[in-house]
């Protein structure tokens, strides 16, 4: 009997050790990370560099899945329904979460996600064809108030904010054409399918250098480092400016160990000099190394701000 008790005791001990070993080995396989826009754009480029560094930190492959559509809400819809096991994560956009979700009927709320930390802060500029009569914001408004109006290409919010605001305060006609990726919207300007596009500087830097596009305004609250001679929208007479914050989220209810490990790894990657330098040099944007709690508060604070903006400018569903 004593021998049997010893065997049972050892068995229980081994089971406990095995269970504990399993709990501290996350991740044991590849992790999928969804992105709300198509391949070839700046968001996709940021995602792939981030995934590369996160992969090295976690010791498992990070598979980037592009899921464009529905102004960014398709990707968040898929993420909210994913199995909360720590093996499915995704980019979480401030504007999609706080603005677009209040314009469209979406099958999720913020409570359906576990926010894990910040990733990047995007900057924006408005570009037109070199032979376009639109050379600045005043020209843009003038055409919008003429019979033709202005067709602008974007991937969704927050890129459309300045045009929605300009339409409200000037009474001009601004028609939105939504594309699945920032690269597609830039190509639309090149092909003259739209009059202007609003995207990050990396999307058109080389095209501007080659004389195939021109920058008519910085849509950020500061002049773009790569185009310091181009005034902001604010400097051109309209008190508008946007910034785009993106972080990482997982479906609500992931295991505590996975959450803690992901939070730590994400913050380490985004805080690294390699990642920060890459964003500045490659895309002309900044890293956003916010911890999960800080990022979550930023999102919470954004809902009433975006609701007020929607009401102030009478913005209708996209």
Automatic annotation (TrEMBL):
Keywords, A to Z? Signal
Keyword flag Signal: yes
InterPro entries assigned: BUG, Bug_dom1
Segments crossing the lipid bilayer? none
Q: Where is the signal peptide?
A: 1-21
Out of the domains of life, which is the source? Bacteria
**Family designation:** Belongs to the UPF0065 (bug) family.
Name of the featured protein: ABC transporter substrate-binding protein
Taxonomic lineage is: Bacteria, Pseudomonadati, Pseudomonadota, Betaproteobacteria, Burkholderiales
